[in-house]
C-alpha cells in the first residue's frame, strides 16, 4: 500500500481511542499500588501491637500518609529470621508513635509522591486533544480534490480532470479517417484562439458539440486532440461519474463542474459516454424523480438556462444517440451533432499510415492492400490489427512485419484464434464440401461478393470458414443482392444434401439458417420485397428501455402474420431450389476443389476463381 499521512491517521485513530480507555482502566497510577510488592505477608494491627510488646519489631516504615506500615520483625514464630510484614494502620492511633519511640524502634515515614495529577492530565487532556486534532486534519484533507479514503465530505465535488494545457501528446495530425469531424473541431479551436474572426460577422461560439458514432471510431481521440491543440483549460469527465447512490450528488457535481468552468472560461468541457446521464426522462419505473433525472435536469439548466455560459464549449461523445433526451439535443445545448462513422477506403488507408509509423513493416507490404481487405473496420480495429501483426512477428522472432502476419491478424480479429488443423477423415471432407458449397455459389452468382479465402483451419467455434470481400457501400442493397446472399448462405447445406444425402446433413449450417431466416424476414416486413406489398410491418428502431426484442410485435393482424410466414417460406424455398441446381450442375468442379482444399487446407480467392474458370464461365461482378 502506498504510504500517505491520511492512511496513517485513519489507522491511528481507533488505536488512540482504544489506548485511551486501556490507560484509564489499567495503567493510570493510583496511591494504593505504591508498596504492593514490598511485603510478602500481612498482619493485623492487634497482632502488630503484640509483636511490639514482645520486642520482636525492629523497624517500622510508614507509607500512604500513615495508613500503611511495613515492619521488619524477628521471632520464633517467624523462624528467627527477619521478615517484612504489611500492616494496615487505623485512621487514628496517636499512641502508636509514642509506643514506638518508647521501645526505641527504628521509625521512618515515607511521604506519597503526588504523580496522580500529572497522569490524569496526560490521560484526560492529551489523548482527547490528539484525537480532535487528527479528526480536524482528516476533515480538512477530505474537502480537497486529492481523493482517497477521506471523501466523506466531498460527494458533491466534481471529479473532472482539469488541465490548463492538456498534455495528451495527440494533435489533429494524429487523427485520420474522419476528416469531416476533424474540420468541425479545427474550427472550434480557431474560434477559441481567435474569436474576432467570427464575432466580426456576428457569429456566436457553439455551446455544445455531440459526437455520435459506433465504438472505436475515434470520438475520444478527437477530444484528446482538441486538448492538445487548444491552449485553453480542458475539463474531462465521464458521464457515469455524475451518478451516485446519494440523492442530489449528481446535480451538485454538475453545478460544481460548471462553476469551475466559468472561473476558467473560455474553456472546453468533455463528457465521455454522456448516455449514462442523458437518457430520456420518464422511462424509468416509479416516476421521474430519480437521481439520474435530477442530474440531467441540472445539466440542461447549466448548458442553456437563465444564466449564460459564455466561453464554455461542451463536447460529448456517445454511441447510443437513440436513447438521449430530446431536450439535450436541441440547438442551444448541443448546437452541432457530428457523426463519426466507420472509415471508407481512404480513411482506413490514412489510419493505417498513422499507426504504421512506429511499426517495422516490410517495404513490400502495401497499406492500400490491407485497407481494401478490411472494409467495416473501425480505427480501433485497424490499430489492433497492426498491433496483433507486430505481436505475431515478435513471437516468430522476425525483424519485420510481413503480409503473412497481417493476414493472420485479420483472420484472428474476424473469426478468433486459430485452432488445431483437422485430421483427414469423413468429418474433414464433409466440412470441405460445406465450405466449397458456400464459395462456389457465391462465385457463380452475379450479385454476390467475391470469395476472399476458403479454409479448413478452425477458428473460434467454426470448424471451417469461407470469407467474402464485402463491398464498400453497404447502405443500399438491392433485392437481387439479398437473394444472392441467401443462396450463398444456403450453399453449405445444399452441398451436404447433394453429396451425402438428407440423412447425413449436419448441424454445421445452424448459423447459416439463422442468417437466411433473418434476411428473408427483413425482405418481407421491413423492405417491402414480397407479394404482401410495399409495407413496413416492423419497426427497425426497437425500444431500448423495453428490450431490443420487445415492443415490435402486435403491429399487424394475425392474418398478416400468417402471410408473412408464408412469404418467408416461399423466398427461402425458391433460393434453396436454385442453390441445389447450382451444386448439381457443378458437381465435377466441386469434387476437384474439395480435393485441393483437403490437401492445401486454404485456397486463396484468386486461385479459387482460376480453377473454376477452367470448367465454366464466371459472371462479371457488378
UniProtKB/TrEMBL annotation:
Keyword Plastid listed: yes
Broad class of where this protein is predominantly found: membrane
Reported function: Acts as a processive, ATP-dependent zinc metallopeptidase.
Protein name: ATP-dependent zinc metalloprotease FtsH
Gene name of the record: ftsH
Family membership: In the central section; belongs to the AAA ATPase family.
Protein's cellular compartments: Membrane; Plastid, Chloroplast thylakoid membrane
GO cellular component: chloroplast thylakoid membrane
Cofactor(s) it depends on: Zn(2+)
Gene Ontology biological process terms, A to Z: cell division; proteolysis; PSII associated light-harvesting complex II catabolic process
